[in-house]
Structure prediction request, 173 residues.
Amino acid sequence: MFVIGNIEYLATAASTSLWSNIKETVKSEGNFSEFLTTKCQKHNTEQIIKHWKDFEIKCPEGGCQVRCDEMLECGHKCALFCHGYDMEHFNIKCEQPCLKICCHKIPCKKLCHEECDPCEFNEDGNCYYKPLENVDSIESILNEEAKVAAEEYSRNAEISFLLDGERPKFYKK
Prediction:
């Protein structure tokens, strides 16, 4: 049994002699300490707990201060600190952006643990977001879309210049 707190206060302030007896027994058997050492079962790291607030800092999720980084079913790494619960990650909700993309190459706008809506261009009812093979492909698709948007802006700016006679402020030639 571990008692974390002010044993001196408990021994003198209690209305019965229970805490006074516990204090004397613990001290006489050499089991009194100013700190508690915890050890992470997964990473073998040790934390010295001297104050109850140390649990929040040194063992925020019941493990240690190392990020979990276990691969979740969705393809993201677990963003929690090392945790002593749900080691299989059955109930961990991924808070990162969804990695699914539709046939129009539009990424889902929801968080990973949220259910995707049909694609915004779902005219025939057949376009839904699907998982990508790897995370790098969504980056390349988004980069390609940014290039297309920049080219479209450039074309629209040129048309605007020809029609209105004014060159847009951000137009470079």
Notes: The beta strands are 36-39, 46-49, 62-67, 81-83, 100-101, 130-131. The mean pLDDT is 78. Residues 97-131 form one domain. The helical segments are 7-13, 18-28, 53-58, 135-164.
